[in-house]
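As a warm-up, study this chain.
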Amino acid sequence: MEYQPEYKMLFNLILNNIAKHIALDRREQEHFLGLLSTKKLKKKQFLLQEGDVCRHSAFVVEGCLRGYTVDSNGFEHILQFAPPDWWIGDMYSLLTQKPGNLYIDALEETEVLLLSKTDQEQLYLDIPKFERFFRIITENSLVANRQRLLDNLSLSAMERFALFCRQYPTLIERLSQKQIAAYIGVTPEFLSKLKSEYFRRK
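Now compare it with the structure written out below.
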């Protein structure tokens, strides 16, 4: 099966991501790719909102998404950024098919590949090794979320910023001070001081 050049690039990215964990032959690759749909999001457009049921796993091929919650005082708490080569979704809602509490929106023009939960479950039957791939993805997400919770409780603001720089090296200059500050749990003004000190030490 031949794809347009722009789709080849998108598909190569997701196939390389999968190849980190499982090996697919050509037939299996084409079967998987045939289940994907593409979606383009404008800046600030939502992929998912609180109360929605998450029906797709999303893989970012261009741009950047963020996943966040909003507390009773209206403050945003960013849980995850998803630049290219990252998967994102409301894990609780996707697994339970109940309304979620996560917002996912685009920080810039973004393109994602979507795999529906229905197709994902059929994929487990058609190509069983995909069950291992998505188990690894789910486990990694759960471990990362737990570690992030512990880091927020035990690490200093400087240590949390340093961790952000290691985890999202491509986003340091792309994101606004406000977005990074909301992720590490400080004010934008304090973040400016952290950044100056961090890069001065380096």
